[in-house]
């Protein structure tokens, strides 16, 4: 590792598309706005000494801290090694430039199909619905993504919807971001109404961390939208550790199931968070107890600023083998890595 200049500035994420004044806004939007954004406040809430935490103002300036208070409440007070805290705290290790770690590790730029549309795999198009997220995960593979230029919502979805409509080989649209559920529900409904006019679409997939980090987002309006969609929906949540679940998350996931969606989980293998077979087994079992099937365990995407989270491939394979030896097959996620130019996620 070699020390480096500060990380390039992350474009300011787009604001959540609020439809009401702050006082009458849905509860989830008020909770969203009330997120913790100051690393020192976060550490203070957990009774931790900021001087010992290795926090980095430079890393936080490039990719700000953001974490909902409900997620903070699931962290262990007084534990700097807490697996949820590690996922969100900006630390000085992020300032290092490590050979092999780049700004666009997964080739999003080369796979651009239209404004806000990325296509890497046959039949599937990913729509960058927004640049906003309720939580900022320090290991995020899109932490350097140019959201200001590449967000499908910008022109009322016109360019993105036209690109998908023009290609009859696309039968699945993936709403991603950022986090697509950071958009207000009427905005999502506007988008899916436009997509519903495309006859060759057969499935919708939604990638969202919100049911886990801000479960209040799963409200009656969202459930009504989901249950009225004209396609089968795969809803892929993102949890990396069993401690991310609590009763409010369970309730949100049960409500999503009630709306008829198929729930899957994707996790990222992260050093200091879940790089132990006990942690991975607990995660799979906790997912299943909440009605979610483990889907992918991603090997870290090698994005600048995240190298301290990397688990070597050999260790990743050994962990996965130990997991498979311990759990029923349906509880074992596929261990994969994304390689730019591949026709799908590559099994490790
Ligand atoms: S929720 Fe997903 S897109 Fe948003 S910061 Fe976390 S990993 Fe990145």
Automatic annotation (TrEMBL):
Isomerase listed as a keyword: yes
PROSITE patterns per the UniProt record, alphabetical: RADICAL_SAM (PS51918)
UniProt keyword terms in alphabetical order: 4Fe-4S, Iron, Iron-sulfur, Isomerase, Metal-binding, Pyridoxal phosphate, S-adenosyl-L-methionine
Annotated Gene3D superfamilies: Aldolase class I
Cofactor(s), names only, from the UniProt record: [4Fe-4S] cluster; pyridoxal 5'-phosphate
Highest taxon of the lineage: Bacteria
Domain spans labelled Radical SAM core: 119-334
Region annotated Disordered, chain positions: 1-22
Family from the record: Belongs to the radical SAM superfamily. KamA family.
Gene name tied to this protein: epmB
Stretches with biased composition (Pro residues): 1-14
Taxonomic path: Bacteria, Pseudomonadati, Pseudomonadota, Gammaproteobacteria, Lysobacterales
Catalytic activity: L-lysine = D-beta-lysine
Protein name in the entry: L-lysine 2,3-aminomutase
């Amino acid at each position: 590792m070699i020390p480096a200049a500060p990380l390039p500035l992350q474009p300011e994420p787009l604001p959540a598309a609020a439809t009401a004044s702050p006082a009458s806004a849905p509860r989830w939007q008020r909770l969203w706005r009330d997120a913790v954004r100051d690393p020192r406040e976060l550490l203070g809430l957990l009774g931790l000494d900021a001087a010992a935490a290795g926090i980095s103002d430079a890393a936080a300036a490039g990719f700000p801290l953001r974490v909902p208070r409900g997620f903070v409440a699931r962290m262990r007070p007084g534990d700097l090694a807490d697996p949820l805290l590690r996922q969100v705290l900006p630390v000085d290790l992020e300032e290092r430039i490590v050979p092999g770690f780049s700004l666009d590790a997964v080739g999003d730029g080369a796979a651009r199909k239209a404004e806000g549309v990325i296509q890497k795999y046959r039949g599937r198009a990913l729509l960058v619905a927004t640049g906003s997220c309720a939580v900022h995960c320090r290991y995020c593979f899109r932490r350097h993504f140019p959201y200001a230029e590449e967000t499908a919502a910008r022109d009322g979805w016109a360019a993105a919807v036209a690109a998908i409509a023009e290609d009859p080989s696309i039968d699945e649209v993936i709403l991603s971001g950022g986090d697509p559920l950071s958009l207000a529900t009427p905005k999502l409904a506007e988008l899916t109404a436009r997509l519903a006019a495309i006859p060759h679409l057969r499935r919708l997939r939604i990638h969202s961390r919100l049911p886990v980090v801000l479960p209040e987002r799963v409200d009656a309006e969202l459930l009504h939208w989901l249950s009225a969609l004209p396609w089968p929906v795969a809803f892929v949540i993102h949890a990396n550790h069993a401690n991310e679940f609590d009763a409010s998350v369970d309730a949100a996931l049960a409500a999503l199931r009630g709306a008829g969606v198929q729930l899957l989980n994707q996790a990222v293998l992260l050093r200091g968070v879940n790089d132990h077979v006990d942690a991975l087994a607990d995660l799979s079992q906790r997912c299943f107890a909440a009605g979610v099937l483990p889907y992918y365990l991603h090997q870290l995407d090698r994005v600048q600023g995240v190298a301290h989270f990397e688990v070597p491939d050999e260790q990743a394979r050994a962990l996965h083998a130990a997991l498979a030896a311990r759990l029923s097959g349906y509880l074992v996620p596929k261990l994969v890595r994304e390689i730019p130019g591949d026709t799908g996620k590559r099994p490790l």
